[in-house]
């Protein structure tokens, strides 16, 4: 309760709806009741991990940087906002664990701990894009937490939540990139952040249209409303 009071709910949702996200409407009522809350949450976490894995295969390589544009970031924010904090975190943890263990679900079908660390002459070094993957774990949780509080039910709240999530990913990714490539921080910002701002703006625009519209349908297009 203390966390809820400390963080503003941009959507000003009723207290009884705290923690209710779009993911709660994915399952038909009869199926959700048969699965139970735990199995339903597990199923949603698996679906979320699959969404992130699929989005990671959308890759646009930019010149002059080892960091490409991918759909992965948008997938992480989408899953976090849709599933909420606990299930969003579970989805990202499952995604990262499976990728590290060998499932070809990272960018362009890559996998393994090599996406985070490499070894050169016996010395352990950071891989260029590993920090972004680590940041996605925290971004999924934070964006999910904001969705729990109703931020995704308005355009302003959605844009704010997605912006915060993106900044969290960059806060891990850019320093990691600088350390991996021995770059000055300003150069790392250019190669690992500034080049992606236009693409991020497009992603935010998509989210700002999708989430409030989806909530409008949930609240007005369904006869039973939130459950």
What can you see in these coordinates?
By secondary structure, the chain is mainly α. It has a single domain, classed as Arp2/3 complex 21 kDa subunit ARPC3. The chain is 62% helix and 5% strand. It has eight helices and four strands. The protein has helices spanning 2-6, 29-55, 72-83, 85-101, 130-148, 155-181, 185-192, 197-221, and strands at 59-60, 69-70, 117-120, 123-126. It has a two-stranded antiparallel sheet. The chain has a two-stranded antiparallel sheet with strand order 3-4. The radius of gyration is 18 Å and the shape is globular. The two termini are 21 Å apart. 39% of the residues are buried. Residues 1-9 have low confidence and may be disordered.
- Measured between the Cα atoms of the first and last residue, the distance is 21 Å
Strand runs, count: 4
Tell me the series of helices and strands, N- to C-terminal.
Answer: HHEEHHEEHHHH
- Unreliable spans are 1-9
């Amino acid at each position: 309760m203390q966390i809820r009071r400390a963080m503003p709910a941009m959507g000003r949702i009723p207290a009884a709806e705290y923690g209710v996200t779009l993911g709660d409407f994915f399952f038909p009522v009869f199926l959700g009741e048969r699965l139970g809350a735990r199995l339903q949450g597990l199923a949603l976490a698996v679906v979320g991990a699959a969404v992130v894995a699929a989005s990671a295969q959308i890759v646009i390589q930019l010149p002059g940087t080892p960091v490409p544009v991918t759909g992965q970031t948008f997938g992480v924010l989408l899953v976090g906002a849709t599933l909420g904090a606990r299930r969003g975190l579970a989805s990202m943890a499952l995604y990262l664990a499976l990728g590290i263990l060998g499932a070809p679900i990272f960018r362009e079908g890559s996998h393994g701990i090599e996406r985070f660390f490499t070894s050169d002459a016996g010395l352990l070094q950071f891989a260029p894009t590993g920090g972004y993957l680590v940041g996605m774990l925290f971004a999924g949780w934070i964006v999910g937490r904001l969705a729990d509080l109703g931020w995704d039910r308005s355009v302003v709240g959605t844009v704010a939540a997605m912006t915060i999530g993106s900044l969290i990913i960059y806060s891990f990714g850019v320093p990691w990139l600088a350390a991996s490539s021995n770059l000055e921080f300003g150069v790392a910002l250019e190669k690992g952040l500034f080049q992606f701002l236009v693409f991020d703006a497009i992603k935010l625009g998509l989210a700002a249209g999708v989430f409030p519209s989806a909530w409008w349908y949930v609240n007005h297009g369904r006869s039973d409303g939130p459950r």
